[in-house]
């Protein structure tokens, strides 16, 4: 895995978004906000697409969404839109490395399909 350390920040950001966006139960009791890290996998595959992109698996979803490396925008997927800003920011921050990996892959150089695979944590 080539970007495990970098992916921890994205996993943390997505968990924070989950925590902030979780519905409130209301009522007269105090709720405790708990940040729960979900499984995160970031893959890059040398497929038939010309545009550099990453596949994001989050939680129980495999191929939850694909995001373009050039601008961080979602290309396709059913991952909730609440995560798009965090994924885009992460991609832009690591754009040089992601483009370098994509270029090497397109040249046929050996590479890892899975750039990062992080387990869920409670």
Automatic annotation (TrEMBL):
InterPro entries found in the cross-reference section: DUF4160
Classification via Pfam families: DUF4160
Protein name: DUF4160 domain-containing protein
Organism, as annotated: Pseudomonas granadensis
Organism lineage: Bacteria, Pseudomonadati, Pseudomonadota, Gammaproteobacteria, Pseudomonadales
